[in-house]
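Protocol step 4 of 5: obtain the predicted structure for the target chain.
Materials: sequence only (see below). No template structures provided, no constraints applied. The aim of this step is simply to have a reference model before the mutagenesis design in step 5. Sequence pasted as it appears in the construct record:
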Amino acid sequence: MQNTRKIIDRAALKRNRKRADASKLFLYEIALAETQSRLKMINRPFDEITVITPFPAIWTKAFPKAQILLDSDILPLKPEFNDLIVHAMCMHWTNDLVGQLIQCRRGLKPDGLCLVVMLGGETLAELRFALRNAESDTVGRLSPRVLPMSQIKDLGALLQRAGFALPVVDSLVQTAEYQDLYHLMRDLRLMGENNALIDRIRQTSRRDLFLRAQSIYAEKFATESGNLKATFEIMSLTGWAPSESQPKPLRPGSASARLADALSTTESILPT
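Step 4 output (C-alpha cells):
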C-alpha cells in the first residue's frame, strides 16, 4: 500500500461515533437496503462473509453469520478467506481508499465479491457551499469543515487499481429536509458524521459565521416548505477477486460475425 498523507483524525472519529444515536442512522438503513438489493441480483451463495462497519447492530440482523470488523486503517482480514466482504458506510473516512480496497481484495477467495457502500462526492454539497461562502464573507479564509469525498468518475478506476475484476460503481442520491442549519449539524453529530479531519479548526467558531451560513443556505437551497435541502449520495462499488472462471474480453480482431449483419444493415465507411 502506498504512503499517503493522513487527513482523518481516527481518535476524533472514534469519539464522534461513540456519541452517535442508533435511532438516527437513517443513511445506514438506506445503505443496508441497497446492499441487500444488490446481493439478491447475484445468483450464488456466500458462506464466508465479513462486514466492516462502525455500527455492527444494523448489519448483524441482515448478516447473522458474518464476521463483523470495526473499520481501521489496517484490516485484520485473513488472506483469500472470504466469499463476500461488505465494507459498510465507512470507507469515506479512510486515510487510504486504495489501500482499503487492496486489503479487501486480498481477503477474498478467487471470484469472491467485495461490495462497498459509502458516501460520495455530492453529499452535503449545499452545506459545503454555505460554509465556504460564509467563511469567505466573515473571516476571509477557508478551513476544512466538511469531509472531502470521492466522485463516481474516480471510483471505478480505483477498483481497477486495487486489482478487482468486473468493477461497477453506482450512485443513489437521497435528499432530506431540515428546519435550519443547526438541525442538520445536530443530525450529523447523531450519525457520527461530524468533522473528524486532522486540519479542522479546534477552537469554537464565531457565531456570525454560522448566522451567515444559515442565511446563504436558506437563500440558495430552501425547499417550497421553507426547510433546507440536504443531499446525501450513497455510492455502491462492486468488484470481484480475479479468477480464471470469470468471463474474459475477446481479443481485438477475433470477432467471427459482423455487427452490420446482426443489425441487418449495410456497412459504410465513416467520412474522414
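Step 4 remarks: The chain has a mean pLDDT of 91. Residues 26-40 form the longest helix (15 residues).
Proceed to step 5.
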